[in-house]
Amino acid sequence: MSSAAEKSRRNSETAAPEDAGDVAVAAPKPTPRRNDSASLAKEIAEKLTYAIGKDPATARRHDWLEAVTLAVRDRIVDHWLASNSRNVQSGAKRVCYLSMEFLIGRLLRDAIINLGLSEAVRDALSAYDVDIDLLETLEPDAALGNGGLGRLAACFAESMASVGIQGFGYGIRYVHGFFRQEIVGGEQVELPENWLAHGNPWEFERRERSFEIGFGGKVTTIEEAGKPPRQVWRPAERILAVAYDTPVVGWKGTRVNTLRLWSAQALDPILLDAFNSGDHIGALLEANRAQSITQVLYPADSHLAGQELRLRQEFFFSSASLQDIIRHHLKRNGGDLSTLPDKVSIQLNDTHPAVSVAEMMRLLVDVHGLGWDESWDITKRVFSYTNHTLLPEALETWPVNLFERLLPRQMQIIYAINAQIIREATQKGLDGAKVSAISLIDEGSGRRVRMGSLAFVGSHAINGVSALHTELMKKTVFNQFHELYPERIQNKTNGVTPRRWLLECNPGLTDLVTEAIGPGFKDDITKISGIDKLADDAGFREKFMAVKLANKQRLAKTIEERLAITVDPTAMFDVQVKRIHEYKRQFLNLVETVALYDQIRSHPEIAWQPRVKIFAGKAAPSYANAKQIIHLANDVARVINADPSVQNLLKVVFLPNYNVSLAELIMPAADLSEQISTAGLEASGTGNMKFALNGALTIGTLDGANVEMLEHIGEDNIFIFGLTAAEVAARRAEGQSGREIIDASPILKGALDSISHGVFGEPGRYNNLVDNLYGNDWWMIAADFEAYWQTQRRLDALWQDSDAWGTKAVRNTARMAWFSSDRSIREYAKDIWDAPTSV
Ligand code: 26W
């Protein structure tokens, strides 16, 4: 064919093949990318040249990172498109995970490992003398979450892709994720985080996937002859939600799912009338106001601040996601919404997307014209809700008047649902006090909408995240609802993805386990139990502890570089890393540290074991006591690290800016994992699982998933202490103070005295923290101190026997497979979503 004819065919979409000339030319198709190192090397250079416009000779490290990312991304796209067309063909149920947070961290290493490209990429880059390990550390962390709940969403997204579920993550594309923490003069300083500053190669903007989101305005009733009256919401303000898609690569790339994050845009980027009449700033105001919705992540995970902007965020991403889900369903299912529950499950990650229940009803009834009863049935069958906290101050409630002003139609719907629920309850014989307990409106402290109750009544399944937490949910927050609907609450114990939290973060251990039992555990983590019998094998144990030592050396190097503190990698690394909160009791750990410091100095005859106490974590900017705890940790570290009398026995480190990447460095390097929350308050914990999987022993309370870890790991291999949840509740009810306990314990009293008398900073600086112990000891720090202290001393004794320690460490890794998020996700799929795996 002549090149002119070819050109004409390419340019003419409608031309029939015979018009193009005598030979038909098939439309060119891209060739799927190859995974050998030579192909990769060539493509990386091509990306560098043609996508980035750089010469390999002059390219900077960031350019190489981008080139590698783009080359790897091409391979992901191949799998992604294949997964998407399989989705269309199979028509299998889609699971939509609505979460205000996805704490995904870096993606390059995750993609490379899951696609099995580690060797090929390393070899490809060696041709250019570029080190992939170094490049990977240049990628910014996507910190679109606060802590446990956000990281769980990220682990679940990866597991859904790995076990073969058609999963969709829906969330918010925050321009500024979780703040960057610096420590200045021992105190936390929050700095803005700017992860998108250099662009984001992982995301694909989908301008065509955009939906209008309304706020405010009025609801009008439309009456038409012969038809029931209809409600129409006319919002005063309308903005656009634009989709940004990020591929989620499952193990071996067999399935690539989508994480769809919404960004807020103005319908009109600039008001030209205002601009032309000279109001240049006013012309942009609307755009700024719209965009502000997705500017920042709220940095609090324990107190509801209750700002209007947060409610706007919640509604914005809920409504956009539901509109997208409905659009897709109508397109693929012949316009029939009655089959929605057969084709879609929507999981609400805590109450943050709970307004979805009301918005779904609005869309079904007002927009798509379904009847109320049918809509309510569809809604309940589609939704399910996970609760992640019982802390009363963290439970979301919104003032009725704010709700009404911002979302007038949704408020009407909530009233209607409430009336229906209360009717049902009274029919079942519930009386006054019990009825007000299940009301969606809290009449107590100003009228407020209870989002947990809304999520509960709009869902067919409600789950807690550990066995203990689920039982407490039934007894406390949802007690009345549980009586009314006894089959709705179930447990789904959390898990963590073994890809990121073992294969990626701990290559040394991964290689050792592969050498010992073969690579099968990578496909099926339960096979890691194969190393259990090797716990008694001295040769294996030695190798296991050598891997641990290497990981500790790596962390020691980071500590030296970032803080100029020298730590001995052969000392016990005793680690507590997580959000800073009073209930997590970093303060208990610090009091023990100070007590230990005193005891080491006054009892040189005792065989103290060298320890490095490592802390990291962020405090909510408005949480004064949590910030005090950070200050104290840094004060204690400064004093102890400068004291020559304890140099070889005790060091204290506070690593700033804890995030997913730092966790990946810390988890494999820990000997001891601190999971010491006041019993009954930690819903599950997931850091506890990451540590144990990497061979750390746990010192912990009978709280959250620790209880189940004890069952799986065995009581000889975990160190449990302290009051139980029931004992905590009883002590709190009695209102006992800590004074008597403190007065009876010279070790505890001595430590508290040094803290309040100014050994670690100005006298009085920590009065607030210390006084609480003498008062009602709300967090049971005085009450649990003695048991904690004694358990730590048992650990000192064990540390001296390195064989015994090593045996327990191996058993921890061998017995943690059940805590894989693959197991959690399979349970959700079977018991809640009724969704097939392996599609
Ligand atoms: C309204 C402010 C706010 C924001 C976030 C309140 C509460 C939250 C989250 C529910 C807090 C959170 O991350 N909870 C943690 O969830 C993890 C995953 O289930 C659990 O492992 C942790 O125990 C729980 O604290």
TrEMBL record:
Question: Could you mention a single GO BP entry for this protein?
Answer: glycogen catabolic process
Subcellular locations according to the entry: Cytoplasm
EC class, as a word, reads transferase
Per its UniProt record, the required cofactor names are:
pyridoxal 5'-phosphate
Region described as Disordered: spans on this chain: 1-38
Gene Ontology, cellular component aspect: cytoplasm
User: Basic and acidic residues compositional bias: what residue ranges?
Assistant: 1-12
Against InterPro entries, the record matches this protein to: Glycg_phsphrylas, Glyco_trans_35, Pyridoxal_P_attach_site
Q: What are the EC numbers?
A: 2.4.1.1
- Keywords per UniProt: Allosteric enzyme, Carbohydrate metabolism, Cytoplasm, Glycosyltransferase, Pyridoxal phosphate, Transferase
> Which positions bear N6-(pyridoxal phosphate)lysine?
690
Q: Which Pfam families match?
A: Phosphorylase
GO MF, one term, reads: pyridoxal phosphate binding
Superkingdom to which the source organism belongs: Bacteria
Q: Output the CDD domains linked to this UniProt entry.
A: GT35_Glycogen_Phosphorylase
Q: What catalytic activity does the UniProt entry give for this protein?
A: [(1->4)-alpha-D-glucosyl](n) + phosphate = [(1->4)-alpha-D-glucosyl](n-1) + alpha-D-glucose 1-phosphate
Q: Give the family, as the similarity comment puts it.
A: Belongs to the glycogen phosphorylase family.
Task performed by this protein = Allosteric enzyme that catalyzes the rate-limiting step in glycogen catabolism, the phosphorolytic cleavage of glycogen to produce glucose-1-phosphate, and plays a central role in maintaining cellular and organismal glucose homeostasis. Phosphorylase is an important allosteric enzyme in carbohydrate metabolism. Enzymes from different sources differ in their regulatory mechanisms and in their natural substrates. However, all known phosphorylases share catalytic and structural properties.
Name the record gives this protein: Alpha-1,4 glucan phosphorylase
